[in-house]
Amino acid sequence: MNDLSKENRILDAATLEIAENGYANATMARIAKRANVSSGLIYFYFPKGKLQVLLSITVRFWKILNERLENQLASISDPVARITELARLAEFMLVRDNNRLYLAKVLIEELPRLFMISDDELKDTRMEITVENRKFINTIDTIIRDGQNQGVFDGSLKPSAMRQVLYGATEMLLYGLFIKASRNEDLGYGKADVKKTLDSLIRKFLCKNP
Amino acid sequence: MNDLSKENRILDAATLEIAENGYANATMARIAKRANVSSGLIYFYFPKGKLQVLLSITVRFWKILNERLENQLASISDPVARITELARLAEFMLVRDNNRLYLAKVLIEELPRLFMISDDELKDTRMEITVENRKFINTIDTIIRDGQNQGVFDGSLKPSAMRQVLYGATEMLLYGLFIKASRNEDLGYGKADVKKTLDSLIRKFLCKNP
Amino acid sequence: MNDLSKENRILDAATLEIAENGYANATMARIAKRANVSSGLIYFYFPKGKLQVLLSITVRFWKILNERLENQLASISDPVARITELARLAEFMLVRDNNRLYLAKVLIEELPRLFMISDDELKDTRMEITVENRKFINTIDTIIRDGQNQGVFDGSLKPSAMRQVLYGATEMLLYGLFIKASRNEDLGYGKADVKKTLDSLIRKFLCKNP
Amino acid sequence: MNDLSKENRILDAATLEIAENGYANATMARIAKRANVSSGLIYFYFPKGKLQVLLSITVRFWKILNERLENQLASISDPVARITELARLAEFMLVRDNNRLYLAKVLIEELPRLFMISDDELKDTRMEITVENRKFINTIDTIIRDGQNQGVFDGSLKPSAMRQVLYGATEMLLYGLFIKASRNEDLGYGKADVKKTLDSLIRKFLCKNP
DNA sequence: GATGAATGAGGTTTCATTCAT
DNA sequence: GATGAATGAAACCTCATTCAT
Lengths: 210, 210, 210, 210
Description:
Chain A is mainly alpha-helical. Helices cover 74% and strands 0% of the residues of chain A.
C-alpha cells in the first residue's frame, strides 16, 4: 500500500478509519497515522478537512465504477445480461475482499451525508459526486427502460422505483455481509446467498413473468 | 409540540437536529434550543449524553412499531396479508408526513452506529434495541418461513436474505422520498409509486409464482 | 481585579497580553490564564476569537471616553477650555498609571487593524467602534469649528486636518511614555513634558495668533 | 516589478501582504505567491523568517531615507528650510503613490514590534534599524536644537517632545490618506491639506512667534 | 426538575520551516 | 539559486459535560 501516492494512501486510511469508528468518531490524527503521513498533509490535499476526505472516497469509487461499467457494458446488449453484469461488477468492487467491504460500509453509511453539505467550497466536490451518481443511475435506468421497451422487463413500474429496489436490496444484503465480517453476528446468510438472491430478484421482480 | 413531556420534546428535537446535520455535527446545545429546554436538562433524562439520546430515538420507534405490529397482526393469518400489513404499518410510521421522514432518515443513518457502541453503561440501551430489532426481524422471518411452508412464498431462498431485500428496498424507496422532501432533487417517483412498487415486490419476488 | 465580571477580566487580561506580546503573538491560552478563566469561556463571550476580543477592548474604551466626555464638556463653552478638557480627559484615561499605558499601547498599535476586518460576523462590532469613533471625532471637529467661527482658532486650516495633528501628536507623545515605562529606553521627555507640549500645541498651533 | 531582484520582489510582496492583512495574518505562502517565488526561497534570503522580512522592509526604507536626507540637507543651513526639506522628503517617500502608502502603513503599524524582539539572531537587524532610527531622530533633534539656539525655534519645549509632535502629526495625517485610498472613508482632507497643515505646524508650533 | 455559565479535554487547523530534488 | 511537498509544533476552537444556583 506504501507504493501508492500519498493522496491515495490517505483515502485508503480514511476508509478504514471511518469504517471502524464511524464518521463522527474518526479523527484526522488517526487517519494520518494509518496513512503514515503527517496530519498537515491531509489538509494539503483536502483543505476542507474530514468531510472533503469522505466525499473524495466516494468520488474515487464512483469514477472507477463508472469507467469500468462503460467498458464492460460496451459489448453487451441483452438487458438481462447487462443488469446482471452491472450487479456482478458492483459486487466485485465491494465484496471481493474485506478491504472492499470496508469501502462498502463507508459508502453506504455516509451516503446520507451528501445531502447535508452546505459549505460552498465543497460544492465542487459534491457536484462531482452528483454527476457520477447520475451517470450510474442513468445507466441502470436506461437498461431497465430498454428492457421494458423490449418487453423483457416488467413495464408496469417506474424504472426509477425499480432501480431503488435493486439498489436498496443490494446495499442491505452487502451490509449484512459486512456485519458478519466485522462482528460475529450472523445474519443468517452468506456471499453465495447474496448472489443467488440478487439473481432471483432480477429474474422475478425485474423481468416480465408470463 | 410544547404539550409533550420534556423528555419526548428532547427526542423530537434531536431527531430533527440529527436529520439535518447528521449525528457527527449535531450538538447538545442545538438540541436543547430546539426542544426549548436547557442543555443541562438533557443530561437529567439521558445521563450518557448524545449517544443515549440517539439510541433512545431508536428504542422509542421500535417499541411503538413492535407493539402496533403485534396488535395488527394478531387477527391476520394469511402470510401475504401479514407481510402487506407489516409494510403498510412501517410506511404509516415513517412516511405519513415530513416529520416522520426525518425520523426515517435518522433511523437509516444511525442504524450502523449500533454496532460500534463500546460504552458499558449503554449496554442496556443497546440490548433494548437489539431485543426490539430481533423481535421485528423475527416477525418478518417468521411470516416468510410460514409462507414458504404453506407453499405461498418462494421456498428457494433464505428467509433472512429475502428479508434483507424487503428491508433494503423499502429503505431506499423511502430515502428517495426524503431527498425529494428536503431537497428538491426529484428521484423520479412519488409516494404512490412506493406503495405500488412494494406491492409488486411482495407479489412477484416473495410469492411463489406458478 | 477579581471582583469584576469575567467578561471584563478577560478584556483586561487581553489588554495586558497584547500590550506585552503584540496582537500577533498574543495567545488565547495566555489571555485565559491571565484572566483566571478557562479558555473556552473566552469564546463564550467572544465567539469570533482574538480579533473580537481586540475590538471589544476598543469598544469599551471609546464608550467610556465618550460618555465621560459628554458629562465633562456639558458645562464648558469656551473652545480653548473645551479642547483642553478633552486632552486632559484623554490623558487621564490613558496615562494616569501604567495599566492605562498598556491600554494606550493596544489602542494605538491595533487601530490599523480596524480597517482590515473582512469577517461579516464582526461587522457589528466594527460598526460600534466606527460609531463611537465618529462621535469622538465629531466632538473634536465641532470644538475646532466653533473656535474658528468665534475667531479664537486658526481658520485657515481644515478642522479635520487639525484634529489629525492633535490626535497624532498626542498619540506619539503617549507612545514615547509607554516605551519609557516598559523598556528603559529614554526618549528624552517625561509626563510633565507631555502636558506642557500639548498645551503649547493648542495655544500656538490651534489658536489664532495675533 | 518582475525586473527587480528576487530579494526586493519579496520585500515588496511582503509590504503589500502585511499592509492588507496585518503582520499577524500575513503568511509566508502568500508573500511567496505575490512575489512569484517559492516559499523556500524566502528562507534563502531571510533565514529568520517572517519577522526578518518585516524588519528588512523597515531597514531598507530607513537606509534610503537617511541617505537621501544626508544628500539633500548637505547644502541647506537654515533650520526652517532644513525641517521643511525633511518633511518634504518623508512625504515624497511615503505619499507619492498608493504603493508607498502601503509602505507607510506597514512602517506605522510595525514600528512597535521593534521593541518586542527577543530573538538573539535578529539582534543585528534590530540594531541596524535602531541605528538608522537614531540617525533620523538625531537629524531632527539636531535641526530643532540648532533652531532653538539660533532663536528661530521655540526654546521652551524639549526637542525630543517637539519631534514626537512632528512625527505623530505627520503619521496621522498620512494615515488618513491611506484610509482614504484603501477604503472609501473620507476623513475630510486631501494630499494638499497635508502639505499645508504641516507647513503651518512648522511655522506656528515649531518656530518662535514674536 | 431546571438553568446556563463555566470548564477543559481533545479535536481541528494552520503555517513556519525544512530538505530532497 | 530555486522549488514545493512534507512535517509537526503549537495554536485555535468546539462542545459534551458539570454544578452552583
